[in-house]
Queue: 4 jobs
Job 1
Amino acid sequence: MYKFIADNVVVFDVEWVPDPASGRRIYKLPETASDAEVLEVMWREGGATPEDPRPYLKTVMCRIVSIAAVVRKKVRGDVRLELISLPGLHDGVQPEGKIIRQFLEAVGNLGAQLVGFNSSNADLPILFQRALANRVTAPTFCHRPDKPWEGADYFARYSDFNIDLKNEVGGYGKASSSLHELATSLGIPGKMGTDGSNVVDLWRFGDIRKIVEYNQHDALSTYLVWLRTAYFSGRLTDDAFVREEQLLESLLNQEIGDGSEHLGLYLDAWKALRQ
């Protein structure tokens, strides 16, 4: 378990879809092949079966469409929370390189403790791969201090500035759990009508808002799992843990008041599970 909670913590989740442009290059398909045709080749080559017609593809064959995060900042002893998403709920489709650059720059500038679920094997590799593909530069994120105590290091194998909750508590082999399984077992909302297999269809139909909403739900659930680990490890006292959950509930109510109706569904599900 990690040794400390940094003043700035970013608990994040990334959504991606198969990238037809990469598929055409990897499988040497003609430019005249439609995106739908390319996707079918990518899934077939990726091991599709009648039971699993859309297998999980290597991240190098995909493109990022959304990043969401709960940002926790401790300022003079006070904890403040913010829910961010790239793109925003009302932004529509944004260039992939812009999404990646903004996220990595923000994390690097904050020197934040980065927290994800299965982030070591999935979210971070695709961020790095697609940053390279889009010619993104992120020097503040990539800076590596000479000594561990001199700042954040997101590339050190056992750095407490890069926490993968799946590695901490998710288990291995047959014991391995998904975020949905772990969260719901803890009384935290899991998937709510949409899951990762639906994202590609939402993308193809241009429903980027639905993807962002789903992305935010996963970021919130990851944050609540992280809070539970912080409490378990003694980084939060009983009273502090209760206050942290209340802070998140206040943030959700504020976002709901600003028109984020999907967060009302999340809050209702969370309250029901806590009862």
Job 2
Amino acid sequence: MDDIQGQMSAAGKTIGVVVSRWNELITKQLLEGALEELAAHGNPEVVVVHVPGAWEIPPAAKALIEDRGVDAVVALGCILMGATSAAKVEAKDTSAALMRIQLDTGRPVTWGVLTPDNQEQALERSGLKMGNKGREAASAAIEMVSVLESIRADKR
């Protein structure tokens, strides 16, 4: 039986972080959490790309993988759901695009894009009561780089 588990070391890796400026009060906290997590697990080379909003995260993530050769991308943003359907469409399309990039490139793109109903919930998920989702997304990126490397190293 094979039992593959990721290691929590990003030493020697290059991690891209794409962060939205929209809702910057929130995304700044997500970025700080992600950078702290990366530094705590091997201090990889980090490339931070700032984009206008969550909608712009996927093309930047794809370019980091294809043109800069990063090992993983951490996607950070905040889409407040509010009372309109536009935010739901943006969240769905952004998540689908990021998943497609993962599948097409074979590189992890982790989801640190909040989709709360209001700013209070966003603040809770960016470092107050419910932890920091940027930190969690960075942790997932580190682990997934290791998991995918282990799977690929054991080709039969």
Job 3
Amino acid sequence: MNFKKLFAGFILLPVAIPTFAQTDSLLAGQGADFFKSKCISCHAFGKVLVGTDLSLSKTKTDADLNLAFDRMEAMVGPISVDQRNQLLALIHAENPDGILNPPVPEGIVEKLPGDPAAGESLYYGETALTNGGMSCVSCHSSFRNSGPGGGKLGLPLTGTFSKFGGSGLTSAIKNAAFPTMREPYRNHEITQTEAEHLTAYLQSVDAQPEYTNSFTLIFSSLIGGAFLFGILGVLYRNRLISVRQTLKS
């Protein structure tokens, strides 16, 4: 037995283990960056969003996960070998959600590069998006206590900033990662600066409930009812005339 080689192995072993750990940590961090750019609008660790809870993926083999990546390419585009390895490292990390959402010390507000006032103007369509996309309020709720109550096609955005964090939400907006955004913004890309402004605005209203304009709702209902009765009147006009003629005869 070569005792020198054996002794050298024992010396190097403690060094090698941290090296592998550092590599996995680096890959997991890179996986978090990719996850925020492509996956965060539908998936999370520890909860169900649009897609499944990815905490359950820890029990799956890398081969199974790569098959899942193959299916997701239809939604997010090509996923390279390096990106797949990064995602695998993130999924198998001890605390993937902690990597995605590192804790912010209590009392400290995350400083974002965007301007909330500029984001508000973009959100309500007072400033047009550079590439011609529709304003957010067309599909999402309004946070103003006056004027129209906003659209209802998209989900309410209260708490969205807390859920995704600054970088995750900015990336999701820029890449139109949310299901309701994909088609409307496919050919009307939101710029990085616009995404940062919108994220800053959503941070400022994060705990604010959506505004529902009851007057607008009642007015819309009355208009809709009047329109419906008008249509029925036109459709049944001839029928009423025939009934009157029958009664006269």
Job 4
Amino acid sequence: MDTHQLVATIRKEVGKAAESLRRSDKVPAVLYGHGIKNINLFVDYKSFESLYRKARGSSLIDLQIGGHKTVKVLIQEIQRDPVSDKFIHADFHQVKMTEKIIADINLVYIGESEAVKQKGGILVKGASLVKVETLPQDLIPEVEVDLSLLKTFDDIIRVKDLKFPPGITVKDRAEAVIVSIQPPRTEAEIEALEEKVEEAVADVEKSGEKEGGEEGEGEEEDKATEDKESGNKPSDDGKEKKSKEK
């Protein structure tokens, strides 16, 4: 399999110093693995960004540390800024070429489904990765999912249908659905859906009117209470006043 290269520098300062690295277009990182001590590193942002587009988590990387030591690693995990979506941290997992590893392989969808193109079906993807166990040298970056196999609404591609080279053991459930086709909605279903939306809108409007009426009644009750407490007797213009003269 292809191996990618990346240069890393050891960093001694952690914590708040990481923000200074990010402002300098660097990505703070950590290297760890079975039987080795964790090492704090940083890598060039643009170099890492370019590599991640190609390698992601399923390709081996020759990580050169401090300009001399090179180790085989996988990108185990990345963190992104929730606002800018920029990389803010990376975890590298050092592997031993003689020990099997658990890794995620990317699914790449190819071809075109007849059920979608000619019958108006809706493509429903159930996964973007598949988990496997293999020796590092047998790891592949991706596996293809051929959508041309989906000719009817009943056709389904499951994990067990994927093709892997020798040496790779799939860990995901064999019957798990990778991709399927959903039939288009009928006119009756669309009308029923529109009616439900209209009913929901009407219920909301009715609820708003009810709340408004209750609020008005509450205001009148509050006014009556205020008059009673202040000693002001509510006017009663509808009743005739009794004559004081006898």
